[in-house]
Amino acid sequence: TAAAAGSAPGAALFFASYETGKTFFNKNIPSPAAAQMAAATFAETMACLVRVPTEVVKQRMQTGMFNSMFVAVPTIIKNEGVMGLYSGFGITVMREIPFSAIQFPIYERMKLVWKNTQGSALAPWQAAACGSIAGGFSAAVTTPLDVIKTRLMLGADAQGHKYTGTVDVVRRIVADEGAVKLFSGIQPRVMWISIGGFVFFGAYENARKAIMGK
Questions:
Q1: Torsion of CA 145, 148, 152, 153, to 10 degrees
Q2: Which residues pair with 156 in a beta bridge?
Q3: What is the pLDDT of residue 3?
Q4: Sign of the dihedral through C-alpha 26, 30, 32, 37
Q5: Which residues fall within 8 angstroms of residue 16, CB to CB, at 6 or more apart?
Q6: Closest by alpha carbon to 131, among 207, 194, 208?
Q7: Which residues of the chain are modeled with pLDDT < 50?
Q8: Are 193 and 200 in contact, with CB atoms under 8 Å apart?
């Protein structure tokens, strides 16, 4: 599927960029939290180069527009150009950057406090738990951005009326469905990102120890 095809490259690009960015920003930004936010911002922007086309194809397949990614990709390129695969890139970056800018400083801080409290390095499962909590909280507060991103990627509302941009999406959701609709899907979003965060950060910590020895 589109999600499977894009998830591994997107995750690999993110963490490679995050570790590179963290090394650079830690040398140039005095505040550890600010350096982590800058590294996460850089990493998310790079990862979105893979993540956005994946999301565009996935969303359109889920709505029944296409039954295969091998049909979806060439059709989108033919009808909309290559940039059609990057529909919603701006709002995706706007969603992912706040998400990671919140998540990673919390994650790194929780690890540090837990490490200092127990007096030894954390096991991968402990770091994974920190990532799960940080991810769940970040998912909750960025849900409106996710709703907006999804609408932009679909391109039109249920009646087929096209969206013209982020402001148009927000205005029409609030006017037609109520502001609470901006938090649509918050419960499953928090649940799945919390679960995914545990697996994601557990794998990340294991890989980092294996590759970098720390």
A1: 60
A2: 162
A3: 52
A4: negative
A5: none
A6: 194
A7: none
A8: no
SS3 162: strand
- What are residue 156's phi and psi, to 5 degrees? -155, 165
Distance CA 12, CA 51 (A): 11
The Cα–Cα gap between 105 and 89 comes to 24
* Region class of 185: left (phi > 0), else alpha (psi between -120 and 50), else beta: left
Q: Other CB atoms closer than 10 Å to residue 97's CB: what's the count?
A: 20
In the chain the first and final C-alpha atoms are separated, in Å, by 34
Distance CA 162, CA 106 (A): 38
Read off the amino acid at residue 30: P
Residue 99 CB partners (closer than 8 Å, separation 6+): 44, 138, 139, 142, 145
- HEC string of 64-102 equals CCCCCHHHHHHHHHHHHCHHHHHCCHHHHHHHHHHHHHH
**Euclidean distance between CA atoms 148 and 152, whole angstroms:** 6
| CB-based contacts of 41, cutoff 8 Å, min separation 6 | 97, 100, 101
Q: Which amino acid is at 89?
A: F
